[in-house]
Design goal:
Blueprint: E1 5-11, E2 15-22, E3 27-34, E4 38-41, E5 44-47, H1 50-65, H2 69-74, E6 75-82, E7 88-90, E8 100-101, H3 109-115, H4 118-124, H5 133-143, H6 145-150, E9 153-155, H7 157-166, E10 170-172, H8 173-176, E11 182-183, E12 188-189, H9 191-197, E13 206-208, E14 213-216, H10 219-225, E15 232-238, H11 239-246, E16 254-259, E17 263-269, E18 279-282, E19 289-295, H12 299-309, H13 320-327, E20 337-339, E21 357-359, H14 367-393, E22 399-403, H15 410-420, E23 424-427, H16 432-444, H17 451-458, E24 461-465, H18 469-502
Parallel strand pairs: 1-6, 6-15, 10-13, 16-22, 22-23
Antiparallel strand pairs: 1-2, 2-3, 4-5, 5-8, 7-9, 11-12, 14-15, 16-17, 17-19, 18-19, 20-21, 23-24
Helix pairs in contact: 3-5, 5-9, 11-16, 12-14, 13-14, 14-15, 14-18, 15-18, 16-17
Length: 503
Amino acid sequence: MSDPLVIAIDSSTSATKAVVVDASGKVLSTGKADIDLLTPGMDKYEHDPTQWWSSTNTAISNAVAALDESDCERIKALCITHQRESFALVDEDGEALRPAILWLDSRAGDEIKEYGSDHIHELSGKPADTTPALYKIAWLKKHEPDTLKAAHKLVDVHAYLAHRLVGRWVSAVGSADTLNLLDIANVDYSDELLEIAGVSRDQMAELAEPASIIDTIKPEILSEWGLNDDVVLVAGVGDGQAAGLGTSAIEEDVAYVNIGTSIVAGVHAFEYAYSPAYRTLLGGIPGSFVLEIVQNSGSVLANWFREELGDPARGGGLDPELDKAAEALEPGTDGLLTVPYWNAVQSPHWDPFAKGIQVGWSTAHTRAHMYRSIIEGMAMELRGNLERVQESTGRKLKELRCTGGGSRNPLYRRIFADATGLPLVVSGVEEVSAQGAAMMAMAAIGAYPDVQAASEGMASFVDRTDPDPEAYEVYGQWAEIQQDIYPALEEIFTRINTVMKRS
């Protein structure tokens, strides 16, 4: 195929982005439309699913409008990546029966305790945690049984958008997998997990292999966008797995890390494995798995610090003077250690009731110490999580491929490189998950022989930070102490949660 273009869609928690990409990985145009976050109660986070489509339609319309006519004629495929674990209940016409429940919703604590087990972990690849949809669907079974039973389909974002685009309820396997309803080793829905959730196979979307062509997009939609009537929909993958493709972190000795609101890191594998050290997902390369580390508290903690304890004049924005003061401090921040569990903990403890901890305060410490300690806490936590993945898999990592807002900050890069002992190589594209979806689309239409080749051919990098060996050794001493803090206080958090429930 001569010089094709593809559209990659990334439908996230806050917005949908559309990115038009050529076969070299160059971005020709973009579009974006916001999605409203609904918070109907404590620990409850929802979307109006109609905004999944309206934001997608607007984002694509804007991206295509920025192209000239000849470029529009070159667009041959569209591929979706999206927020994972979020789901909607719909009737036969695709109308939502209730607001969609999102990945960050944590209403199902009792269901996690009731159903979470090592067996479910082995079957699904996912430790019991707040994010998988399984437990929230079980919550609906208990609290909204009539709505759950009345649903024609229970769908993730991919399946919802696919129905709008091609008229079929179809999800990619790596998208549906994040609902926690699949027997992941056999790449099919699990009758046992469906029973726990209270849904039937008939209520689930059909499954498509990653980077396979699902169907041609409806002519009336393509006409509205100003595109030819031969554009196909390609099966995508969740945004975390797509980021691994977007950074071309495919080889055994390379990991990706997104230093964003949360910190997500992972490696590709081509045999099924599971461990408390990570959660296992189906990847965007056919036959692949992604072993993923998730740290709930990422740059959200630095943002929190600047908003609550930083310079009021900056309103929580970046503060170069604060970064400069933190950068001048030595690794270990004069003994001030942070366990960054402000928003509970996923890897490696999977405890929804964990809280943030700081140990070692003295009157010699300053705001800059606290700020740096928070960043070091994230980085040392990543160090420990990566070590556990390497131990579990027998790998030896040589490089971290980086994306996310934190990867653009020199202070973050220096601390993360020194704490992990690994070079940080920064992706050259901002929308790296969309880039992963574009790679899958290019492989599907034959612009590359397979997804791996597309990932290698379309990835780009703009910066590299090598670790300081001496600083790495120092961080090792502090990390050994930091990693012992949570286990010593685990029972305390359970007691705190018990009292909070009573009050």
